[in-house]
Amino acid sequence: MALVEASIEQLRVGHYVHLPVGWQQHPFLFNAFKIKDQQQLDIIRHLDLALLTVDTDKSDLPLAPLLHGEPAVVAAPDAPPPDPEPLTADTGFDEKHWRRSLRAAEKAYGQSMSDLREALGALNLKPDEGLANTAQLVRTLAARLAQHEGPLGLHLIRTPHSDILLQHSLNVAFIAMLMARELEMSPLAVEEVGLAGLIHDIGELRIPSQISQKRGELTRAEQNYLNMHPQYGLEMLNQLQAFEPRVRQVAHLHHERLDGSGFPLGIKGGEIPPLVRLIGLVDYFDELLHPRGASQPVTPNQAISLLYKLSQKKFEQSMVKLLIKLLGVYPPGTLVQLSDGALALVISTEPTRPLSPKILPFIKGQRAEGVSLIDLREDGRTITASLKPEELDEAQRHFFNLGRRCCYYFAF
């Protein structure tokens, strides 16, 4: 399957199209079909669509070049069609600035790890201090998010697979806070979202590490024990009298799903509070990247596709679309192939440029630190495919540091 974005003007009878709207918004039987006559083509042209997707493998003829002479952009398989990228004033890619931003993000992420470790470690002996420090971690960040003007994306942070609970909690908190900011929540509400993300799995502190961090397949008894962590989390927070009730609810209910298939209560739909839905979605995304037990991890763009497929059953569709908007079609950590055959790793994305992330290209015989980053807005190449880690050789895996965990921090 070769999915290519096309403008309405490029369409001809014989093109196999995927319409980026629901079935209620067009008169055709399916969302994907081959245009068989001029009447169908005219209907599509009146749907008020700027872009749609064409499967060139199933089409009878190739796409005509864009009128302005630029190449069409390849979309990620199974991902929802992104909005067209807006035209903005381009001052050029300042790689030195972006390198500084990456280094600052790595440092800030490491400091957040240290602060959260210290705060959670103090809960037993100095609970008031531990809770206050946990809240302070997101309070400072929420204020900084409120002061930042314009769109904000995420950097890829590669860290060793240590302190898995802390890494997972930070990932969920940071991505959820970015979603809250995009929803134009108040700084106080963004802070609350971040706090809920930090403590949603706090009940795992009562689960033995040989179960919570087990690499092999869990036994039924071990899985049942692990599934108790939401109840343990609620009990811990109630005992500490910590935070608002709606934040405690997140620790208890973040594994509930809209169709009632979740746990521990099996509630569904409107019974699940909005904050729980938000954290539950981001929690699931990060679990796909770093699954427990013997489950195989998926790549970030595969995780996006899976979430999109689940968006009408288990997760709120508007929240899934927002997450995809912020992470991009190719989220940080995605391995991609460019139109000239080169391999690259997506390093940073921004919501206004879902198809043009900043990437680190593979250069044989060089260290990643010495290779220049590329901004695909200014490069003539496009992304033609995403890759799985197992498709790379050992030298390429080492170059991209694939043995480490995929974490995120804000691209200030």
Automatic annotation (TrEMBL):
Residues 143-339 form the HD-GYP domain. It comes from the Bacteria. InterPro entries: DUF3391, HD/PDEase_dom, HD_GYP_dom, HDIG_dom. CDD domains: HDc. PANTHER family: CYCLIC DI-GMP PHOSPHODIESTERASE PA4108 (PTHR43155:SF2), CYCLIC DI-GMP PHOSPHODIESTERASE PA4108-RELATED (PTHR43155). NCBIfam families: HDIG (TIGR00277). This is HD-GYP domain-containing protein. It comes from Aeromonas bivalvium.
